[in-house]
Amino acid sequence: MAGIEVTALHKRYPDGTVAVDHVDLSIRDGELFVMLGPSGCGKTTTLRAVAGLERQTTGDIRIGDTLVNDLPPAERDIAMVFQFYALYPHLRTRDNLAFPLRAEGLPKAEVRARVDEAARLMRLGPLLDRRPRRLSGGEQQRVALARALVRRPRAFLMDEPLTNLDAELRADMRTEIKHLQGELGTTMVYVTHDQVEAMSLGHRIAILNKGRVEQIGTPLEVYDRPASLFCAAFIGSPPMNLIEVEVADGKLRGQGGLVLTPPPGLPRDRRLVAGVRPEALEVTEPRAERSVPARVVSAEWLGDEIIYVVDHGGRRDVRVRMPPTVRFAADAPVGLRHTGGTPAVYDVNTEELVA
Amino acid sequence: MAVSVDEAVSTRPARDRGSPARRFGGRGRSALEVTLLTVLAAVMLFPVLWMIETSIKENRDVYAIPAKFFDFKVTMDHYKDVFVASGSGRSTLSAAFLNSVVVAGASTALATVLGVPAAWAYSRFAMKAKKDQLFFILSTRFMPPVVVVIPIFLMYRQVGLIDSKLGLILIYAAFNVPFTIWMMKGFVDEVPAEYEDAAMLDGYTRLQAFWRYTLPLLLPGIAATAVFALIFSWNEFVFAIFLTSSDSVRTAPPAIAGLIGGTTVDWGLVAAASVVFALPVLVFAYLVRKHLVAGVTLGAVRR
Taking every annotated instance into account, which residue ranges of this chain make up the domain ABC transporter (chain A) (predicted)? Predict the structure, then answer.
């Protein structure tokens, strides 16, 4: 087991595309580290560079204490699981599992023991004598995971392994992967574009955009204080409300009269935007205490909650998450009230968190 | 008059109820289809049938008027003449067939050996101006052979490739490589790159991964592509007649064509030679028909 250090990674393809601009990552030993970002943000390229499937243009990659820049994938002692499972179609599950071990030249008894162990961990017993064609998507992915396990690698690399599964199975596999990683304690780097996956799995999350790291933090840090406007808009469903504010009389005042508590150390003379989560707002009866007048534009009834889109005279409508018991009709006059603590505040020009 | 108008009005809705498919549907339609297909097949296959008939007729029956369809004496003399010279030893035609086998086989093998790895590279790697390169490769096939045959002839005379099997093999391979690259690239695109990635993580080099995992999955595609290349080389006429002259080098198409044009034409021999010439390709296509279908239904591989 080992940590992974990625320093100043830059990858430019011969056709001129810059897939990774500048990425620094410090992944700890035993950590489940998630790289999250929209497609084309460079997360997969970064992972493939760590695996050795792509050669970075510049920058260093260390796995444990070893500088692996020039090592072929096989010598990096890592295992990778792909979105497409890449099981060898002509081999039975048992042989698919044994394959990397035989390639290493392990003795037969050892191969058998390790295959059995991995099969037990992933509960593959009944599937051992089937070929991939006769396995369902979920089963194939479990075999792919088991094939990564048998190697006992220093790190697992996961490239959107659950994307091809249907929603229910995805949730099950998510739990399974998290449990497995906890049990084995092996470093895992997990790439996904699904924020729910990232939030539920990761010890820490790196949010990537346009080949750069926007933020690294625990799921809570990333959720509570997104480091940039991109992160603020990317994490959360619905995402943060971005409300343009001005500092006046020791308060943050938004257009439409919404008043927020300012965080300490706000810079002066800059255009500011406050990020307010939908659950930090509240739709109230009109003229309720501390509320500003507003109007319901639309309501999404999600069963366990209602998302109200509310016009309070600001530049943009805001989204408010409410329990399903609080019901207002569309177009109804209501009040809008801020109930959360101090919001995250961003500079409009640099798009970065200022306080 | 009034009655007929009433009839027309009353029957109209009933007729409209049946959809076009139903009106021509059922047995009527299938009978029509069978008839049309039979006529089409007869028209398409008649020359082939006539060629086979002519090849087993005696010469006086070949020229008989009215033509004899069934009541002629069957002879195998023409087939004997294809392979055995009038005196003794091998005929020039049989030498030409052997040349065709060598030239078509070698050029197809060469095109496959060069084209498949190229297609793999174009499919797997990012490279500069990839689309332009591929377009350039395809553009070499834009011109019909007859346009380039004169310059090729002059160049071949300079380098001493004129009237040699090697020369034909090279020019056919050159024509087949672009085709092989384009067709095989489609097949390689269909094979997920993850197989190779996984194999590389399992300890193989990129080339080993290609050789052990991707290549076996490409075999149907390679078979289909090779058959097309083989048929092109086998049938090619223009280059063959311009670039070769001696009987020891000449391939079958110009050799068969050479039979026509003397004072008398031995049609039986021409027909027999043509049958012998057509058979290998037919047999070959039949043997790999499964792969050919797989090749034509590109994109049937489920990811």
Answer: 4-235
